[in-house]
Amino acid sequence: DSDGLQYLFKNCSKDELFWLFNVMIKNVESTIGVATNVILSWLGPEAVDRWNAARDLSEVAAPSASAESPLGANFRPMLLARLPKEGWWEVLKENSGEEFFVETKYDGEHVLLHKIARDQYKWYTRNGKDFTKDYGGSSSLTDLVSGRIHSFFRSSVNDCILDCELMLWDKKLKKLCRRQFKSQNSENRSHSFRHIDPSDHVQLGEIEILEGLKLCRAKSKNKNVFFLVH
């Protein structure tokens, strides 16, 4: 609380405050020039895997039985990796064979959607940020994304985790657009996935399952939400 912070500010030395601020803004790795995985490895051979599974230091130090279930946990998703410029074909051939499918990489907000006990939701980004408050933690919040997509799940689905790409749709230009490129949308400005005004041309919008891509679409009166399910 504010009283506790004031006490620290008044009683800590300059060096102590320096590290306190770096811990608060999660900037320790950059400050000391050591990668997160290296720091975690000092805690033990399984520390990195435990961190990726829960993103919780208490689980790294003393994993609980609940850590075995990923449902609702803020774990690190599988991420794409760039192929080397030289020898890329050999890498593909070794892992995929002579014939393979290529999927379009949509550039949106990589999120993990947790559907829990049918009506509850959790939203985490690939970097572990909890955006449940912005996208909705319950199906009853019909003005937020969770409430808008809830009816599109089968009634038999109580729990699931979707690895998705949240996209923006320009209603005027009738196309997907990238939030940081002003020139690619009809409003000529950048957009935030978490702060979309209903009057904007650019919206979060429809979930549709396209053949081969599994692009989910949920449609509401004036908003659209796109998820690419990996």
Give a short synopsis of this structure.
The chain has 230 residues and is an alpha+beta fold. The protein contains 9 helices and 7 strands, in the order H-H-H-H-H-H-H-E-E-H-H-E-E-E-E-E. A hairpin with a 4-residue loop joins strand 3 and strand 4.
How would you explain this protein's 3D organization?
By secondary structure, the protein is of the alpha+beta class. Helix content is 27%, strand content 18%. The protein contains nine helices and seven strands. It has helices at residues 2-11, 14-24, 28-32, 36-41, 47-54, 57-61, 88-96, 132-135, 145-149; strands at 109-116, 120-125, 160-170, 175-177, 202-204, 215-219, 224-228. Strands 1, 2, 3, 4, 5, 6 and 7 form a seven-stranded antiparallel beta sheet that branches. A hairpin with a 4-residue loop joins strand 6 (215-219) and strand 7. The protein is globular, with a radius of gyration of 21 Å.
Instruction: Assign the structural class, choosing from mainly alpha, mainly beta, alpha/beta, alpha+beta, or little secondary structure.
Output: alpha+beta
Q: Low-confidence parts, pLDDT < 50 over ≥5 residues? A: 206-230
Helix content range: 25-40%
Order of helices and strands: HHHHHHHEEHHEEEEE
- The residue-averaged pLDDT reads 75
Query: Outline, from the CA principal axes?
Result: globular
Taking the alpha carbons of the first and last residues, their distance comes to 40 Å
* Number of H/I helices: 9
Number of strands: 7
Biggest beta sheet attributes: 7 strands, antiparallel
Pfam family, one: DNA_ligase_A_M
Protein name: ATP-dependent DNA ligase family profile domain-containing protein
Organism: Trichostrongylus colubriformis (Black scour worm)
GO molecular function: ATP binding; DNA binding; DNA ligase (ATP) activity
